[in-house]
Structures are given as C-alpha cells and as structure tokens.
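Deliverable D5.2: sample structural annotation.
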Amino acid sequence: MSCCWLLTAPFSEIHRALLPPCCFAARWLSSCKVSRGLLHCYKLLCLPEDESSSPEEVKEAYLRLAKELHPDSGSARADAGKFSQVEEACRTVLAHLAERRRREEEGRRKRRAATGEEEEEEDEKQRRQAPQHRQYLSFEGVGMGTPSQRERQYRQFRVDRAMDQVLDYRRRSLEHQSSEDALTASEVRRTKNIKITQAIERLVEDLIQESMVKGDFSNLSGKGKPLSKFSHSNPYVDPMTHNLNRILIENGYQPQWIVAHKEIRETIAQLRADLLVFRVKLGEPLTPSKQKQWLLNCEAFRADLARLNKRVDGFNLIVPLLSQQMVHFSAERELKRALQAYQELREEQRNSEEKAGTGETGDPKGGLFTWVQNLFK
C-alpha cells in the first residue's frame, strides 16, 4: 500500500482497508442477528413482518397466544417453553417499538425547534420593519409610504379583495348548483309535483280575480250573509271537533255537568213550587194544627235541600268552568222566599176580588173577554 494513496484517500476508505476482514463479517452478522431476531419475534406473535403493528396490537396478540399456550389454560396447545418464547418476543417487540417512538419524538422535537427558531427570526424581522406611527393604523394597516400612497394601495387592495369575494361566490354557486343536480329521482319528482301544485293554485287565483273583475260574483245568493256552514259553530274550533260535537248533539248526548246542572235547577224549582202549594193549601188563618203541619213540611223541605246541596258539591267538582259553579241553597232564605211569594199571591187575589166587586176593569178588552167567558159558564 503506497503512501500517496494513504495521503489522498478518504478516511472511511482508509479505515475500511486497515480493519481486518473478520471485523466486517462480525458486524454484518450482528446486524443480521438483531433483524432476524425481530422477524422471529413477529412470527411468534403472528404479526406482519413489516413492523407496522402498534403496541395495542402486540398486546392483543400476546394475550391471544397466552390463552392457548399458558400451562394453566387447560388448552390442548399448552406448552411452557413456547409460552416463555412468546413472552420474550412480546417484550422485545414492545421495547423495539418504544425505542422507535422515542427516536421519532426526538426527530420531531428537533424539527419543531428548528422551525420555531426560524419563526422567531421572521417575527423579529417583521417587528423591526413594522411601522410604529399612528398614521399607519388607518387603511386596515395596508400599504407603505405617504398617506396618499397608502390610500392608493388600500384602494387596490379593496379591488383585489372584492374580486376574490366574487370568485368565491361564483364557486359556491356552482357547488350549490351541482349539489342540486345530484338530487335523487324521488326528490326531483317531489319538487316537480310541488311546482305543478303551485302553478295550479296561481291559475285558479287568476281565474277568480278575472271573474271578480267581470262581476260574476255580484249577484250571488246569500251575499252579505254569514255562511251556513259556520252559522252554528265556533270559528276557533277545528272542523273535526265541530262535526263530532254535532253528531253527539243530534243523538241526544249531553255532558255530565250540563245534565247535573239541569237536574239541580229542576229540583229546586219543584221544591219551591211544592212549598208554595202546601202553604196555599193551608190557607188563612194558621191554626195550631196547621202550624204544626207547616213546621213538619219545613223540616222535610230542609232535608230535601240538604240532599240537593250535596248534589251541588258533586256538580262543582265536574264543571269545567269556574264561573259555572253553584253555591249552596239556604233553607231559611228559601222559606222566606216562599212566604213572600204567598203574600204576593194573596195581594193579587185580594185586588182581583176588589176589582170584581166594584166592576172596574183595567183593560176593556180583558173585561169584555171575561164577560163573554162568564156568559158561557
């Protein structure tokens, strides 16, 4: 080996030439041994050999094989030696993946650090070149130089921005149109039906307006009168509810609270009439026996009125309107009312007898009619 070659050759070639051949063979065998060991581990775990598996997939493969090869699993493939090999292979692969992840993190951190330094340098340059005067706060910070120059630059900036907005609007319009063209057949058919319906409605409306102009609706029967369809119905009630109510009414149905209210009114009217008739029947004057009969009848009236008040309580529980609720009937008030009605009846009878005795008539037609009735008696 000449000295000139030693002086001119690169250091790597000189190092390779001076080392014995056995060193290169040992290094190549060691690298192959590690690579073959990893491949063997991947094969033991039944994983792809391209080293693309994640730590989660490695753990799942280990658990699956452990269930089959563990001596305590009771499986037909249970083997302690293979289980040990699988466990060692899992540890090796996980360590290899962790080392690879660490190297990737270091490389990413270095790249981020380099990028951060570049960004800091750019920020520093911009900070040095940024204008600090208040006049540069106008025109949205656009432009450099004098105010007139910055105004012209700002106008050009606005023109460019408007053009960009127009192009963006056209692009979105084309995208919307393309999305409308991509409708399914059913949606297109439904859209056509809607358009046809709207066209028919417009046509009908035009014909109605034309007829109104010609005066075709001037001499219609029932003009200025309410529609018979809504003459007996509430306009705030939907047609279905109105028809159901009409059917129930035509078949004699009445709500329970209306029936109860009617029965209470009829009962109190009957009790008042019976009380008045009984008092008229007793006549004047009231002897002790008649007074006793009147008191007994009053007690019976009070009992009937107490039962009626219980029905009033039941009615108040079912009536839907608060304004329709009823108060209890007072026995003393009803008795006083019956006696007052009896006195008024006595006064009318006395006045009629006096007029009949004197021959005075308040109404000549009434007197003539009475005379004719007496004549035919």
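Annotation notes: Residues 67 and 73 are 6 Å apart (CA to CA). DSSP finds twelve helices and no strands in the chain.
The annotation will be released with the project's public dataset once the embargo ends.
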